[in-house]
Amino acid sequence: MIRIDEIYYNIFLPKLQERPFHGLHWFDPFGSVKFKHLCSVPPVPWDDRAVRYLFWDQEPLYPETVDRTLAEFKAMYNGQHHLITSERNSEFVERACDTYGFISHYYFFHGWAALDWFRGYDHSFLIARARDRNPTQTFMSPNRIVAGKRDHRVLFLYNIYRQGLENNHISAPRMCQYEGVDISIIAQKYANIYQDITEVLNAANLPRLFAGEAKQQMHSYQLGNFIEAQDSLVYVPTETVYFGRRLHLTEKTFKAIALEMPFVLVATAGSLAYLREYGFRTFDSVFDESYDLESNDMQRIEQVTTLLKSLDQMSVKQRHEIHQACLPIVEYNYNHFYRGGFADVLWQELKGMLEGLHV
User: Fold this and answer.
1) Same domain, 147 and 279
2) Do 268 and 162 belong together in one domain?
3) Is residue 355 part of a domain?
4) By residue range, what is the domain housing residue 259?
5) Is 31 inside any structural domain?
6) Nearest to 153 by CA among 197, 118, 192
7) What is the tens place of the pLDDT at every residue in 12-36?
8) Are 39 and 14 in contact (CB under 8 A)?
9) Could you say which residues of the chain have pLDDT below 50?
């Protein structure tokens, strides 16, 4: 397993140092995409032979941040420019490369991050194994940041309340901690599509916290909420990105796998198929996963909540049967994640990417 905080120094830099005029650039602190936070190692002189690799792998690409940072990068550094991201089949990566003349490459950074951050939990006693659980609720879904580029979570919460599913294990803020914006203000952006969205969310009992929380918790790099997980039939991660054409999953999805839970993804279209490419199994043999094929972002989120509604309306006996039917899949995914299968797939991909860089 690769330590994610050492990936640039231990994996990429030794290979690049074998070639003259090759430079590596990444962002520090973690999560920043500002030009002033770029690390540049080793120093490469201003020379037309320079080959520069910019790792934009920690965060998704958005035009407003890309335009600021890549414009400065092009002005500061000459030579051939490569952009290495953790999103695939992405209209946003294509735009960045077409606009600024970068050559794109991909590897699954967030897969490595999940393996690093969630290591050791398989040897803990924080939650009962899936086969020993008897969930009473349909789903759990943590939601923390709802402003900025995360307002699909506002749409998800609206559909949850509109479908009468709020009695499940849900966390959600009234005021986005990250940007200090009230959820009703964000909702107004979609009032032309859902006329009652502001009314529904104003009437919701927000904020919603999980047991033992005094405020919304930041759990990206660790597993938590074991009480809710053990009591829920499925896990619903609301992923970092939702809108547009791209494949970009994060540790949020892998939390479900590390907790031995079935999952229903609030993510970009094709995300389930993308996950299966890395050796994981999904639950189309147990419940309807056709939402993953829906390219219309609004309709996809409605299909997700319709699926949750159908699960929520099942009898106790039917829900027990669903839980039992999912056990072979969640146990397979858990073992694929923790017993080396996923890491092997990621390592082959990463080596292939390095070969494509000709380093």
Assistant:
1) yes
2) yes
3) no
4) 118-339
5) yes
6) 197
7) 988 877 788 888 999 999 889 999 9
8) no
9) none
Please give the pLDDT value at position 194. Answer: 95
Both 271 and 186 in one domain: the answer is yes
77, 106, 135 - which closes a domain: 106
- 3 state SS for the chain: CCCHHHHHHHHHHHHHCCCCCEEEEEECCCCCCCHHHEEEECCCCCCCCCEEEEEECCCCCCHHHHHHHHHHHHHHCCCEEEEEECCECCHHHHHHHHHHCCEEEECCHHHHHHHHHCCCHHHCCCCCCHHHCCCCEEEEECCCCCCHHHCHHHHHHHHHHHCCCCCCEECECCECCCCCCEHHHHHHHHCCCCCCHHHHHHHCCCCECCCCCCCCCCCCCCCCCHHHHHCEEEECCECCCCCCCCECCCHHHHHHHHCCCCECCECCCCHHHHHHCCCCCCCCCCCCCHHHHCCCHHHHHHHHHHHHHHHHCCCHHHHHHHHHHHHHHHHHHHHHHHCCHHHHHHHHHHHHHHHHCCC
**358 domain residue, yes or no:** no
Total structural domains in the chain? 2
Rg (CA), the chain: 21
| Cα–Cα distance measured from residue 55 to residue 187, given in angstroms and rounded to the nearest whole number | 34
Q: Same domain, yes or no, for 187 and 244? A: yes
What is the per-residue pLDDT across 69-82, written as a single tens digit (0 to 9) for each?
A: 999 999 998 899 99
Residue 301 forms part of a structural domain: yes
Percent with pLDDT over 70 in the chain? 99
Read off the tokens for 213: 């929380």
Give the Cα separation of 298 and 318 in Å (integer): 29
Q: Both tokens of residue 224?
A: 């938590």
Cα distances (angstroms) measured from residue 348 to each of 3, 29, 273, 316, 338:
17, 28, 19, 44, 17
- Give the tokens for residue 304: 């997700």
CB neighbours of 276 closer than 8 A, spacing ≥ 6? 282
